[in-house]
Specification:
single chain; mainly alpha; 20 helices; about 45% helix; RNA-binding
RNA sequence: GCCCCCAUCGUUCAGCGGCCUAGGACGCCUGCCUUUCACGCAGGUAACACGGGUUCAAAUCCCGUUGGGGGUGCCA
């Protein structure tokens, strides 16, 4: 039996990292088993779905390197779902219901579900455009519905807690459970891999699948949720975690993908950062964790830094150039080797090279005092200033001059000069970038700093 | 309220009855390297939620407690 899995996002927002991780695990499993990975857009909710977001989802998936083999949109398959409903209605597996939500609440209170009020009332088929009548699925009130989850083990629900749920809205549009069950059946899905937030929809789908005549439902594997610091499910509003945010900030897709894999799964040999082929080879659904995992940006940053440093210089230059800002290409090429070792994200680059490209930033007060507060700094700057006027303008000579001035005075000179020229106490190596600046500019910056000391 | 799930260092993963005086990674701290920072290297810090069982033996199995989370829509 060949594996068929699907990633089925609803296009109601940008693709976020939780969904991306679900997509990734589906993809990993498909690639590991030489199976088929399907992208199925679940856009049955015509009011909430934003067709333009489908492109964002596809782009994000492609960015992560998750290629799919087949693609479907549920909005194009409504006639299938509705035909199924006709059959249910004929066989008495579903029925029309004209209860308003207020009426139901009035009967059962706040905390109960639907009370099966219309089960045997024979509400007739609504006239076109009626807009009040829904179709509900007749669920058994006794027994249990359960499955052996590949990650969580046996999960069971008492049928008595499964209400007669809606399968067609009053506007005639089919609901998620129905479309989901039908498509999984129709598309021959063998494994359903998705977030834990969907576990309690499984019994309904299982019941539907049975009514559909499915002999064998797919295997289910519910992934632990990805959570924020408050240990709550990552949410679009609270946590701003769409994949596109990360592409914008200069994360490498390979780093993001690799990091996402470590949330809920780990290789037995303890190696976390490794090529995707090795991950595919070692990945297995049965080894996935059950506990929620915190999305730790600091660790993502570390992964990203590792991946940046793995790049060969040319690739680094090409990839990072768009993030570097207004800097001459040739100059950027010369700075790149120093930059590559120091950044964890591409969006850190402009700040790092700012003093070479344009004006140095205003120094931080505390750092300034710490570096420039020493009594010998004025003497050092004076001597450096004097010697810099005539020195050959190339890195080695600059280093000799600046460092030599310090030695001549029995002190350290690199930090004060760095602070004067770059406005920071840390950053790129000093002399190579400094040689890129005009002599007059460097002298001017040091004079200005010297002036502040009086 | 009701239903479902979860529980190893601050975080993340390893551990699936003895190899555990619990391991890797991130973070943090220390040292080395060094023109600063970073990189790299070498160390260090820090956890089996609690209580009962089962067993010769439990982080690993069972039950309970506590604590978290998810769901409870004519969203998915």
């Amino acid at each position: 039996m060949t594996v068929r899995v699907r990633f089925s996002p609803a296009p109601t927002g940008f693709l976020h990292v939780g969904s991306a991780r679900s997509a990734l695990f589906n993809w990993l499993y498909a690639r590991k088993t030489s199976g088929t990975f399907i992208l199925r857009i679940e856009d049955t909710d015509v009011d909430r779905s934003r067709p333009e977001l489908i492109e964002n989802i596809r782009d994000s998936l492609r960015w992560l390197g998750l290629d799919w083999d087949e693609e479907y949109r549920q909005s194009e398959r409504f006639d299938h779902y509705l035909a199924v409903v006709e059959g249910f209605l004929e066989r008495g597996q579903a029925y029309y219901c004209d209860c308003s939500q207020d009426q139901v609440r009035a009967r059962v209170g706040e905390n109960a579900g639907y009370d099966s009020h219309c089960r045997d009332r024979n509400v007739s088929k609504p006239a076109d455009g009626d807009g009040r009548v829904v179709v509900r699925f007749r669920t058994p009130h006794e027994g249990v519905t359960g499955w052996d989850d590949l990650i969580r083990g046996r999960v069971e629900f008492e049928n008595s807690v499964i209400e007669d749920f809606v399968i067609v809205r009053s506007n005639g549009v089919p609901m998620f459970h129905l479309a989901n069950a039908y498509d999984d059946f129709d598309m021959g899905i063998t494994h359903v891999i998705r977030g834990e937030d969907l576990v309690n929809t499984v019994p309904r789908v299982l019941l539907l699948l049975d009514a559909l005549g499915a002999i064998e439902p797919p295997h289910y594997a519910h992934l632990p949720l990805i959570v924020n610091e408050q240990r709550k499910k990552l949410s679009k509003r609270r946590d701003d975690v769409s994949v596109s945010d990360y592409t914008d900030r200069g994360y490498l897709p390979e780093a993001m993908r690799n990091y996402l894999v470590t949330l809920g799964w780990g290789a037995k040999d303890d190696i976390e950062i490794r090529p995707i082929d090795e991950i595919i080879e070692r990945f297995d659904l049965a080894d996935i964790n059950r506990a929620p995992a915190f999305f730790d940006i600091r660790k993502l940053d570390h992964f990203n830094g590792e991946y940046i440093r793995m790049l060969d210089l040319e690739a680094f230059i090409d990839e990072s150039r768009p993030f570097a800002g207004p800097v001459d290409d040739k100059l950027y090429r010369r700075l790149a080797p120093f930059v590559q070792e120091r950044v964890r994200r591409y969006d850190e680059i402009p700040a790092l090279i700012a003093w070479v490209v344009g004006e140095p930033p205003e120094p931080d007060e505390k750092d300034w005092r710490k570096v420039m507060g020493r009594d010998d700094v004025p003497k050092v700057l004076d001597l450096v200033l004097e010697r810099l006027v005539t020195v050959a303008w190339e890195p080695e000579a600059l280093a000799d001059t600046v460092l030599g001035a310090g030695e001549a005075l029995g002190t350290k000179s690199q930090l004060p000069v760095r602070m004067a020229v770059t406005g920071r106490r840390s950053g790129l190596p000093l002399f190579e970038p400094m040689a890129e600046l005009d002599r007059s500019i460097v002298l001017e910056r040091i004079r200005k700093a010297r002036g502040r000391l009086d």
